[in-house]
Each structure stands twice: as C-alpha cells, then as structure tokens.
Amino acid sequence: MNWEDNVRKVVPYTPGEQPKDKVIKLNTNENPYPPAPKVRDILNNFDISDMRKYPPPDADVLVNAIAERYNVKPERIFVGVGSDDVISMAFMTFFNSEKPILFPDITYSFYDVWADVYRIPYQTKPLTADFRINPDDYKCENGGIIFPNPNAPTGVLESVDMIEDIVKSNPDSVVMIDEAYIDFGGKSCLELTEKYENLLVIQTFSKSRSMAGMRIGFATGNEKLIKYMNDVKFSVNSYTMNILTQICGAEAVKDEKYFTDTVNKIINTRERSKIKLKELGFEFPDSMSNFIFARPLKKPAQYVFEELKKRKIFVRYWNKPIIKDYLRITVGTDEEMNTLFDALEAILNG
Amino acid sequence: MNWEDNVRKVVPYTPGEQPKDKVIKLNTNENPYPPAPKVRDILNNFDISDMRKYPPPDADVLVNAIAERYNVKPERIFVGVGSDDVISMAFMTFFNSEKPILFPDITYSFYDVWADVYRIPYQTKPLTADFRINPDDYKCENGGIIFPNPNAPTGVLESVDMIEDIVKSNPDSVVMIDEAYIDFGGKSCLELTEKYENLLVIQTFSKSRSMAGMRIGFATGNEKLIKYMNDVKFSVNSYTMNILTQICGAEAVKDEKYFTDTVNKIINTRERSKIKLKELGFEFPDSMSNFIFARPLKKPAQYVFEELKKRKIFVRYWNKPIIKDYLRITVGTDEEMNTLFDALEAILNG
User: Fold this and answer.
1) What confidence score (pLDDT) does residue A18 get?
2) Nearest-by-Cβ selection for B51 from A93, A114, A213
3) I need a surface site. Which of A126, A337, B21, B117 has the fewest CB within 10 A?
4) pLDDT digits over A55-68, tens only?
5) What is the mean pLDDT of chain A?
6) A323 in Cβ contact with A312 (< 8 Å)
7) Residues B213, A52: C-beta atoms closer than 8 Å
8) What is the ipTM metric for this complex?
9) By the 8 A CB rule, do B56 and B76 touch?
C-alpha cells in the first residue's frame, strides 16, 4: 500500500469555458451589466491596511444588508463564497441520512458532484417531456431534496404552491430550493421559510446582482437551520469571505433601483430574444431566467455550438442524453444578442 | 424522526475575538504593517464591471506569481481561501484511512475540529516538557500526519532534518507541514517536496504578507498531490477565490523588498520583546514566529489576560490543560509593544 490508497478520488465538475480573448460570452449565465455603481466608491475609500486583519467571521455587514433587503432577521441568513459554497455546506450539514437524496435528472450539474464527494446516496427523478417537475416524485422516502427554481439548464419556473406541497410532504427531510435565477421574473418561496422549518432557500449575487467575480451566495431558513450551517462552516473555515467582498456586497444590495433596472433590461432582452429565436427556427421551454434553453430545428445543436464558437460566440452545450439537442444561451446585452442572431441566421439559413 | 436527525452536529471552532473598538490587538497573530503598497494601485485600476464575470477557476495569475517567487512549477501549487481552506481541503483529500491521523497535543486548535467534521479518526502525541516534537512518536502506523512548524501556539521551530526523518519514515501517509509562521526566521521544508511525494507544505499570506483580510493560503507538493487536491476542490466549489483577491495577492507576492523589510521589522521587535518579557518575569520557549508564548511567573496568566483586556490590550489565553499558565502574545509594532510592556509593568509589579 502507499499514500495514494487513502486519497479521495473524484471526477471534478467541469466549469464553462472562460476564454481570455475578446469574445461574446453567453455560456455561463453572467450578467452583461456591471454591478451597482457605488461599489466603485467602496474600492476607492478602502484603506488597504485593513487587509492585514482577519475579516469579521460572521460577515455581519453583509448579512445585515441582506436581512434588511429581504425583511428577515439576520439570524435567518447564512452567507457563503457563492451559492456553490452555500449549497455544498448545506449538503454536508443536512444530507447525512442513509436514504438517497432526490433531485431531477436534468438539473444543475453540481448536485451529483457534491453527492459523490460527500458520499451521499442520491436518486434522480425524471422531468416530464416538457421539462416540468412532478411533485409526486418527491413524496417517497428520502434523505433530502434539492432543485433549482427556475430549473437549470431549462429555465422553467415552478410555482410557490407546488414547492409548498413538496416541503409539507417531507417534514423529515430538508428541502433546498436553489433560486439562483429567481430574480428574472419568478416568485421566490422565501416567505415559506417563516412557516416550514425544513425549507432552505438559496440565492446568489452572481446573476441578478452582477457579482459572479466576487463570490457571494446566501441561504434563508429558520434560525435552527442557519445555526446548524454556521456550526459546520465555522468547523471548516472561520474566515471564508474576504473583507472586500463583504463590504462591496453590502453596498450592492442597497441599490434597489439599479437592481430593478438591470433585471428589467435583461427580462426585456430575453422576451425579444424568444421572438427572434422562434423566427430562426428554435423551440424552447418558456424561460423565466437569464438564459434560454433552445433547440435548433434546422441543424444539430452541436454543429451550431461549434459554428458559433468559430465566430467567437460562446454558448453552452452538453453532449448528454435528453439535452444534447439543446443550447443554453445566456441573455446578454441587446447588442450581443443581435450579433448572435446574425450569426445564427448565417449558420442556419446561410 | 424528523429532519434534525440527519444533521451533522459539530462543536465549532471559536476564533479569537475581533473587537470593533479601538484596541491594541495582539490576539490573532496579524501583521501590524499594511500589505505591499502596490496593492492600492490594483484597487484603483480595477474595472468593477469585471466583477460581473466568474473569476478564473484556476486562479492562474496568483498561482503563477507564487510559483515564480518560490521557484517551482505552477502545477505544484494549490491555492485556497486562507490556509484553513487549504488544510481543510487537504484533510478531505488525503485523510481517508481507517487508521488515526497524528498531531501534537498542543498545536493549532483547528486540526481536531476538521477531523471531527470530516469524521477522521485521530490521535494526539504529547509534546516534550520543553514543547518539542519527538519524531519517534510519528513512526507508528497512521492515516496521516500534520503539525505546524514553527508550532502554534508555542512558536517553537523544528529542523528540516527532523521533518525529513518523519516524512521518510511514512511513505504510506501524507505528511502535512503547516508553515504559517515560517517566514519569521525559520527554514522552510519546501525543497523536500522535490524529493518526497508524500509531503505537502502549506503557507499563508495572512501573517508575513499582511493579508489575513483577503484570505489566501497555498500548498506546495508534487504534481500528483496537487492534482488530487484540485480535483476535490473543483468538486466542492469551482470558484472559491474572488477576482480581487487573486490580483491583489499576485501583486503582493512580487514585492520581495517590502516583504523582507516587514518581516525583519517584526523579527527585531520580537527579539527586543523577548528581552523585555524576561525582565518583566515571564518565561517562554524560544519563538521563531510572530508571537511569543509566555508564562507570567508573578501572577496567574488568566489574571494578566483579564487585566490587559481592561486596558484594551487583547492577547490570547486558553483555559486548557498544560497551556493554561501561558499567554500567546502577537508581536505588534514597537509602539504597541511598549504600551503592552507598560501595562504589564503595572499589572505585575504595580
């Protein structure tokens, strides 16, 4: 035997490409607009000698700003280094049953990765033919439940009532709703956390708040859930969020007008893009997120993906069962989308 | 049963106090000097619209800067969100044996916390009466080995030869040396990583580089070790280090002159402080770190700790066996130390 026998061996998640050249990047669901302008002032006024001190371990400035914005007590907010950190910590904290956790077969591709790394048994439930979640699939014995709403990479939104039905049916499991894309027209189930102590709702600053580069995610739940998560977090790393991220994030969440304007611009571009994509011969489930999961009817998806790449336009493609005929296209600026549509016109009808 | 039955319940680590008032803070081994001055330029020149994009997941700018400074290939460097993140990830990656991992009874108080949260069996080995590590204690069957060098909270340095002896005797285990404090006069065992594939050396920007607030740690080892750690890291969270930390850290590590000057100032203050503490009636093991682990002979340590706190001077005290007669005093500026010595004079001899 040797030291390699005791290594945790995993197949890591492959993130979307981050090309360094100048390209049109519609492949990782980033926001095309900058974050709230006052974030610049935070950087200007920051005294770099404050870097020498450990950051507040409870990230209180950021937690309080989020709590105020969402009108909940700070004790009901957990913050982490992106929603990936929040969800991964939640898996570790809450998914310790011998029973399998449940999530859809078509969903965010990190859930099975976390389950593998933490050795959590899991079982996937197929979406319906039109990419909907069937709540009855989530009423069997399980060790926990997670899905995004709107779902990824489909963009399909489920109702708060349907989520309540699942949460209510599973008092013995923690149900996590990953609302990374909820701000683009969906209704959050955050208020259900007042009523159900087994519900954790996760959101992120990476999409609607244009801060993917800063790494901020948060979870809302009842105080007990949040306390358990903080206990685990403080056992792994007390100081996960650096000081600049804490204060930039707190500033960003205060600018409600900029947030609403930015989100509305993206929603308008998305709706215009739906019309245009239909004209170009795509079909897609209706999206309530900042991306469209669209299937080109005239040419194979992989071919379109590669042709777009040649033209320096990046979208996301997975060569996997069920979804291999689709492209996930992030909603960029109107100008970026026009360039995309011109390219698609040439590729599909040229 | 209910959802709480499957919660991972842990006793979290308690970090040193981070008082918000103006105090003399000698309790968390922070550097009293600001980080390299050019870090200010990085913030001034940063385009906040770059926050909207995900950061490079491999943190290549920072990895390359560290690799260049330490003259190793980038494939041999792993970076994380502080050395806590690096070590916690290393525990998860390498400590998967049924046999206990080994570390000293008096050491960094996070090792048993990580072992507990990851359910890794462990066994502690007593330090000698003068706080030394006995290498023979680490030559039994084990699932891995970790200790800091210099050790915390004692500040005692062990030799590279002694570490080589332990690494050579344990080809079936990964040996981790936590060199958080090595830059304050110790000799790193980093070059042993060329020779032994089971050795991982961990360092941090939090102490000698004045960047605790930014959260940067790194590990050096052979390419295989680093690859395994990256696989696990990418399975937990692909984007852990935000963009500002990556570029500020890369800039900081380039300024070798500032680094040397700062470290030398701290070493000079430490040596002067040793003389002064002896005069004041303290005894302590010789420290090669940025703190002194000192035992007041005239009054109980806890009393001195509390009296200092009343005077708004924070040092660290643990009410635990063996070390309950000691205070861990971070080396601050000369001015801060003078204030401390005046207060100690009043408390001990007043």
Assistant:
1) 73
2) A213
3) B21
4) 999 999 999 999 99
5) 96
6) no
7) yes
8) 0.95
9) no
- What burial class does residue B116 get, using C-beta atoms within 10 Å of its C-beta: 0-12 exposed, 13-18 middle, 19+ buried? middle
Q: Which residues of A touch B94 (CB under 8 A)?
A: 3, 6-8
Closest CA to B191 of B317, B70, B51, B66: B70
Q: Helices in chain A by DSSP H: which ranges?
A: 39-45, 60-70, 82-94, 111-117, 160-168, 223-236, 243-254, 256-279, 301-310, 334-349
**Nearest CB to B52; choose among A13, A117, A212:** A212
Interface with chain A: mutation pick from B2, B6, B38, highest number of A CBs within 10 Å: B6
* pLDDT at A8 (0 to 100): 87
DSSP symbol at B318: -
Instruction: Give the pLDDT confidence of B194-207 residue by residue, as tens digits.
Output: 999 999 999 999 99
CATH architecture of the domain with range A3-30+257-349:
Alpha-Beta Complex (3.90)
Cis omega (within 30 of 0) for bond into A104: no
The per-residue pLDDT for range A265-302, each reduced to its tens digit, is 999 999 999 999 999 999 999 999 999 999 999 999 99
For residue A313, give every residue at least 6 positions away whose Cβ sits within 8 Å of its Cβ, in sequence order, or none: A23, A24, A26, A339, A340, A343
How does pLDDT run across A79-121, given as a tens digit for each residue? Answer: 999 999 999 999 999 999 999 999 999 999 999 999 999 999 9
Q: What is the pLDDT of residues B210-259, one digit of tens each?
A: 999 999 999 999 999 999 999 999 999 889 999 999 999 999 999 999 99
Q: Does the pLDDT value for residue A1 go beyond 90? A: no
Q: Which of B8, B99, B118, B141 to mutate to test the interface with A (most CBs of A within 10 A)?
A: B8
Q: Which CATH class is domain B17-34+257-349?
A: alpha beta
* Of residues A10, A214, A234, nearest to B231 (C-beta): A10
Alpha-carbon distance of A338 to A154, in angstroms, equals: 22
CATH class of the domain at A39-254: alpha beta
Average pLDDT of chain B to the nearest whole number? 96
Q: pTM higher than 0.90, yes or no?
A: yes
The DSSP symbol for A146 reads E
Residue type, B267: I
The answer to whether the beta carbons of residues A212 and A21 sit under 8 Å apart is: no
Helices (H), A38-169: 39-45, 60-70, 82-94, 111-117, 160-168
Q: Which one-letter DSSP state was computed for residue B342?
A: H
A145 to chain B: nearest residue by CA?
A: B3
| Domain ranges within chain B, ordered by starting residue | 17-34+257-349, 39-254
- Mark the ranges of chain B whose per-residue pLDDT is less than 50: none
> Do A248 and B84 count as a contact with CB atoms less than 8 A apart?
no
Q: Identify from B27, B43, B116, B236 which residue to disrupt to test chain A contact, counting A C-beta atoms within 10 A and taking the largest count.
A: B236
With pLDDT > 70 as the criterion, what percentage of chain A qualifies? 99
Contact call for B234 and A12, based on CB within 8 A: yes
For A124-169, what is each residue's pLDDT tens digit? 999 999 999 999 999 999 999 999 999 999 999 999 999 999 999 9
Query: Which chain B residue's Cα is nearest to A81?
Result: B240
Q: Which chain A residues have a beta carbon less than 8 Å from that of B97?
A: 5-6
A290 close to A27: Cβ distance less than 8 angstroms: no
Report which residue type is found at A263: V
Tokens representing B170? 């344990």
The alpha carbons of chain A give a radius of gyration, in whole angstroms, of: 21
> CB distance A30–B52 less than 8 Å?
yes
